[in-house]
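Bit of a strange request maybe. I'm writing a small parser for structure token strings and I need a real example to test against, not something I typed by hand. Could someone generate the tokens for this chain?
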Amino acid sequence: MSEMVRVVVDAMGGDNAPGEIVKGAVQAVNKHSNIKVILTGYQDAIQKELAKYKYPADRVEIVHTSMVIETAEPPVAAIRTKKDSSIVVGMMMVRRGEADAFVSAGSSGAVLVGGQTIVGRIKGIERPALAPLIPTKDGVALLIDCGANVDARSSHLVQFAKMGSIYMENVMKVQNPRVGIVNIGAEEEKGNALVKETFPLLKQCTDINFTGSIEARDIPAGVCDVIVCEAFVGNVILKLYEGVGATMLRTIKGTLMENMKTKIGALLIKKPLKRALKSFDSSQYGGAPLLGLKGLVVKTHGSSKAIEVEHSIYQCVQFKRQKIDEIIKAAVE
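Reply from user aminoacidic:
Good idea to test on real output. This should exercise your parser:
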């Protein structure tokens, strides 16, 4: 029997909490017998949602907290003062070894600050990085960093490349993952000061498969497995990716429903179209792990529905099984 993986889920975080968060947690434990979910937050609100479902009671636990960190709150102050919040309590459980991972759709700032100050960085890691999987023509690529370090240094980007390679090789089973740095052209002499400084450092790394610069237009084509950038650029790429994807989906659906002919055509291609569109649905890949910490913290979108919460919990199982934090620690040492 597989080892039980204990995942703490912030039931109060995100636009759709606690309803969609609890639903995603229930779906995860119902589909996999090696997952235990610990829901942190307001007990009454969580129990009200749980009452809607059938699930193995021994694998869903509630840890009551009297506070919630709101999205608009200053993250550092919130982590310091709201010790009994669903985020802080959940992260403390990871720190004490009472849980294997923490998932939240709540305040990004609080998750980032809490990850560093409560769970703690791996010794030698200068900055942890948020690393979501984004869909490409050939599968997925890891975008690192997308939100943790807006003002990064070249040494940070080198560590991002190494952590990203470890994640893709061990979790996604990509052999010798291709690493590219986001740039405004393919030539080595192009880019801003940070890219120009980082490029030769990445070329010197013998433990990664650095393929050079990657332009944003080439990302969907799947030319790289690990896409390295600082968080400002990464966040713009991620948000544009999501916005274009959602707009295209609406446009395609609208076109197919225009008249009787298009509706008949839509019916004929329904299955392959659904399959193709699903491959570009980022919700099936879960959230963004904060790589470089002593334990696993996963940040999901604030607008996450149950399916993304469910897949974020599965991410934690893979991460734990492959011992990614230990591999990163060994690589840094």
